[in-house]
Amino acid sequence: MKYLEEFSNPELAGKLLDRIHAAATRRWAIMEVCGGQTHSIIRHGIDQLLPDVIEMIHGPGCPVCVTPLEIIDRALAIAAQPGVIFCSFGDMLRVPGSEQDLIRIKSAGGDVRVVYSPLDALKIAKENPDRQVVFFGIGFETTAPANAMTVYQAKRLGIENFSLLVSHVLVPPAIAAIMESPSCRVQAFLAAGHVCSVMGTTEYPALAAKYRVPIVVTGFEPLDILEGIRRTVLQLESGRYEVENAYARAVTTEGNTAAQAMLLDVFERTDRVWRGIGMIPGSGWKLSSRYAQFDAENRFDVRGIRTEESTLCRSGEVLQGLIKPHECVAFGKECTPRNPLGATMVSSEGACAAYYLYRRLELTPAGSHA
Amino acid sequence: MPEQTTTTPPTIITQTTDLQTTTSRADPVDFNGWACPVPLRDSPTIVMGHGGGGAMSGELIEHLFLPAFGDAAAAELGDSAVLPAPGGRLAFSTDSFVVKPMFFPGGNIGDLAVNGTVNDLAMSGARPLYLSTAFILEEGTALAGINRIATAIGHAAAAAGVRLVTGDTKVVDSGHGDGVFINTAGIGVIDDGVDIRPSRAAVGDVVMISGPIGVHGVAIMSCREGLEFGTTIETDSAPLNGLVQAMIATGADIHVLRDPTRGGVSASLNEIAKAANVGIDLVERDLPIPEMVANACSLLGLDPLQVANEGKLIAFVPERDAEKVLAAMQGHEYGKEAVVIGRCGADHRGMVVARTALGGNRVVDLPIGEQLPRIC
């Protein structure tokens, strides 16, 4: 696998940083949309190296973080049922529902399994015809094609004991919702490179024009992120608001058209609640009527489960970039990765967890850490 | 330290080489290389009777375990091993092994069970002498696989220079175990003048590691998760008592030794930072992380510093002794690639902080529980 070391090269990073320092003359607030980018920025200490006038606001692009409590409670209810094999990506296991999480369901006897691909869950369904196998299909446009392919295959192969609990969310409606917010401070976006590798970039020019914000499609390695920031700053300083592609090695304008066709067949647009943000119209996907029989919410009686979010947790404001994680009074006290109050503290891509894991040093009052 | 064990994560979809999947009950058993298999031919898999203490138990010991252990095994089969009392201080440690899969590139649960306890003893500066081996076998497990594991135990014990002096075998019902669980306990002696323990880490100490980071964990993951990384990566499991004795022989005042097994380098360093109340500063670009490990971790969303190692040790040595200890490590088979990775300081006591390649800082934290692969 190439491009890991090459795109972390400290000398080249230094040069990009010099150019960002030279270009930035005024205060700018830039949001990186994707949680993978947040993780990389904090993990490599990129925000510490940027000019003081550049503020990175950590966006809502962690799929684990924005999955609403209600869906998690429904997942827990399904996973606890006898005869069910509940399959999930690993980082959903520790996400707290209103009372417990998947790890506790597993220790109480639930059959909860970590998979790396939804197709693995389909294989489990094939091998266990007398069990109901459910895959927790969350994520952005990035993970949706594989989930779509799995449901497509389930239908084609007639694997009727498989179903998908869907909570897919979409980036462009979230960008619009952030810009519509009266308290919005974001002046430019680093768009999520992997999302654009699937969907292309055609959804973004209208957003850039309507809200007069630069949008730069950006990758995930340190040099990718620095280049995305550099291009964003150049646009901001010169008053431009265009869509630029700084991740051309993975992203084309039209994206992955085969994946898009699959998505169009399997999913249809729906309103979605985002944890910490609320309902964003047309911001998600659900299974289309052609695949409704594979919808876990149809197969299991869980639609009655309604859950309100915790009042103490301020992850919603973090996800909207209104506060930094450590500005929440619960940060590092009542709320830690071990006992998370909100989802942003759970996933390693969540802004609160990234701050806790890598930034505790400077955020902890002197003498109190041990 | 007994907490350094090997364990399994939450249920993972496996494409493993488990005994039960590779050898069904009906499969013919390959008896090649067995010392005296004849009485075991009736049953190619473990049955409940093998743990009953009767004739079948005896046959299993006599015809499988003892021949497989070879010269490392004690011949006497009493209820307890009777051993000469060595002078000086004793080190005593125990460790249980429930690794899944049991066979992986470069080794199996048997090597781990010996090296794990040998290394736990060695980390206090002890010379390991005696080991016990206790097996919990699941009904239906193929004897051929158990023979491979027992043979690996014999070889590993011989390589480490320890004697297998006592043991036990129990059988659990099918479905109530995971093939083979092994517990080993070991006794070693600590020579006079040797005082190695986590709380001795001191400001100014140089921190070094005996070789590349994360190799064992990635070797296990590569077969457990059915992931292939282009080329096979093999476990680095090895006995470290020889390396430790070579380091002690330099006359250096070694403060701390630790084998960063479960929880990886990160867990070991955090424990030491807290035990000794020192700050530990790492330099990320000095960390010996093989490209294969870096790639696998990047793919799975894991931190190489939290990935398990076997056959590696971390040493804390005062500045004045650092050079000769490093040279001694590099002159030993299991320390050839030893490097300095950081230092102990008086800032941020109790914490481990890494300077990133780009020049920023980050806290290196303990893993919370199991490492969970990320969604994207």
Q: Quick gist of this model?
A:
Chain A is an alpha/beta fold and 370 residues long.
Strand content of chain B: 15-25%
Computed structural class of chain A: alpha/beta
What oligomeric arrangement do these chains adopt?
heterodimer
Q: Hey, roughly how much beta strand do the residues of chain A contain?
A: 15-25%
Q: Extract low-pLDDT stretches of chain B.
A: 1-28
Question: What integer value in Å does the Rg of chain B equal?
Answer: 21 Å
Task: Determine the mean pLDDT of chain A.
Answer: 90
Number of strands of chain A: 11
Query: In what order do the strands lie side by side in the largest sheet of chain B?
Result: 8-10-7-11-9-12-13
User: What do the pLDDT scores of chain B average to?
Assistant: 85
| Total number of helices of chain A | 16
Shape of chain B: globular
Helix content of chain A: 25-40%
Helix content of chain B: 25-40%
How many helices of chain B in DSSP terms?
9
H/E element order of chain A:
HEHHEHHEHEHEHEHEHHEHEHEEHHH
Largest sheet of chain A: 6 strands, mixed
SSE topology string of chain B: HHEEEHEHEEEHHEHEHEHEEE
Structural write-up:
By secondary structure, chain A is α/β, with parallel strands linked by helices. The longest helix of chain A has 16 residues, at 222-237. Chain A has a six-stranded mixed β-sheet with strand order 4-3-5-6-11-10, with helices on both faces. A five-stranded parallel β-sheet of chain A has the order 2-1-7-8-9, sandwiched between helices. Chain A has helices spanning 10-23, 35-43, 46-49, 63-66, 69-79, 102-107, 118-127, 144-157, 171-180, 193-199, 204-211, 222-237, 257-266, 296-299, 315-319, 351-363, and strands at residues 28-34, 54-61, 84-88, 111-114, 132-139, 162-169, 188-192, 215-218, 243-245, 267-274, 278-287. Chain A is built from 16 helices and eleven strands. The model of chain A is unreliable at 365-370 (pLDDT under 50). Chain A is globular, with a radius of gyration of 21 Å. Chain B has 376 residues and is of the alpha+beta class. In chain B, the strands form three sheets. A seven-stranded mixed β-sheet of chain B has the order 8-10-7-11-9-12-13. In chain B, strand 12 and strand 13 (361-363) form a beta hairpin. In chain B, helix 2 packs across helix 4 (143-160) and helix 3 runs parallel beside helix 4 (143-160). Chain B is globular, with a radius of gyration of 21 Å. At the A-B interface, helix 1, helix 2, helix 3, strand 4 and helix 7 of A face helix 8 and strand 13 of B.
